[in-house]
Sequence to fold (460 residues):
Amino acid sequence: MTKKMIINEKIINGILKKTGKPSAGRVREILKKAALKKGLSLEEAGYLVNLKDKKLIQELFKTAARIKNEIYGERLVFFAPLYVSDYCVNECEYCNFHKKNTESTRKKLSFDEIEQQVKHLINTGHKRILLELGEDPEKNTIDYVAGVVRKIYSVRTPKGNIRRINVNIAATTVENYRKLKKAQIGTYQLFQETYHRATFKKLHQGPKADYDRQITAHDRAFKAGIDDVGLGVLFGMYDWRFEVLGLLSHSQYLEKKFNVGPHTISVPRFRPAPTVTYKPEYTVSDDDFLKLIAIIRLSVPYTGMIISTRESAQIRRKAFHIGISQASAASVTVVGGYGKAEGLGGQFEVSDERPLNEVIKNVLKDKLLPSFCTACYRLGRTGEHFMELSKPGNIHKFCRPNGLLTFAEYLEDFARTNGTYKLGNKVISHYLKEINDRDMRALVEKKLNEIRNGSRDLYF
Ligand code: SAM
Ligand code: SF4
Fold:
């Protein structure tokens, strides 16, 4: 398969036209098929992105909620981004780290500074990090990035350590991806930003302006042995309906070629940023945003879906129920910004600024189970092996126990005195009872007690 076949704009535009007026009958047929959790074709997804009928949209949300629940259950995995360098040679119109920003002083963290940042994150309860850097072949070399990954893993505090590091850095070579693999990264995430070639060209200058380099990056990561990769679009730059079909095309391409679809799909929406004058031409409304999350959940049912603090607490709350399985919390997009009072000069403005504990408290009120699980990756359940488990919904049998254990750890270490402890343990008891396998349930109960008595990092 050639790179041309990852996205065929003519085909996508043709589908968007053909599916412009979806009938209720056809939509219900598609929802019924989606409920089987085998995904959707581009054309089927086309009918859904063109959906306007309010009643049918509610049915779409209901189906998405059901699929999310059957595959990912009640769990919501939390992580924090860590920005270690904002040096960047690119001119992305939408990003505050673009080269033309001469107002901010650029910063690249030393390993000592990284240790301080990581300690801060560990001490607020995080176990998973998404590493973020600008693209600068001289300042942010791959050896620096791999060194940062190793450094982060090495940081220990009495409250634990970071157990999984996902990486979001510029498209690079197979050789460089091999170095990341060797440093034991989790998922390699890279957003296409927009699948629309002309828009991509308009909004980028510098090495990132190469659309083909960007869209083939995941192929190179696979070649280097990284088998958990993440896709994403920066919504607002082009018609969201086109972008959703783009994401689906890319997912289907990866699945066909490597037998592994995207481990995650991220759905960032454009946010204002200090030196950015760009105004998105295709602003996505809240209603359409929720719709696109639900459609992606139906189209690529097994994929982890990520929402960030770019979104408000209200939107996040809704999104958690219709497809999202991972969320960042208490994020700072300023390099070295954790634990500092000043929050200026970040990549973009965040919207949900609540501390992790508050996010968790609200999630619990909605009967969701916060999870800090990192077991799959540490036990080699990645790539094809992970897909074999997640597609039929079997990942459930590990996720719920691991979610319960990692959340129990969180409660013991970070929530004993802040009012979340009681509610959290109530939610744990509730979902413990929902483990059908009696032996597994007894084992989880035993391990929960061990955690309450001081054991840590127990997982299946
Ligand atoms: N520099 C690398 C790259 O561009 O691929 C790593 C990722 S960058 C630090 C993280 C992501 O932030 C970008 O891929 C982009 O989608 C998103 N982003 C940039 N500017 C943004 C803005 N103003 N609002 C929301 N998201 C933004
Ligand atoms: Fe640099 Fe990434 Fe920002 Fe573009 S999105 S300016 S590559 S940090």
Summary: Residues 392-452 form one domain. Residues 54-72 form the longest helix (19 residues). Residues 88, 90, 92, 95, 97-98, 134-135, 170, 208 surround iron/sulfur cluster (ligand 2) (CB under 6 Å). The chain has a mean pLDDT of 95.
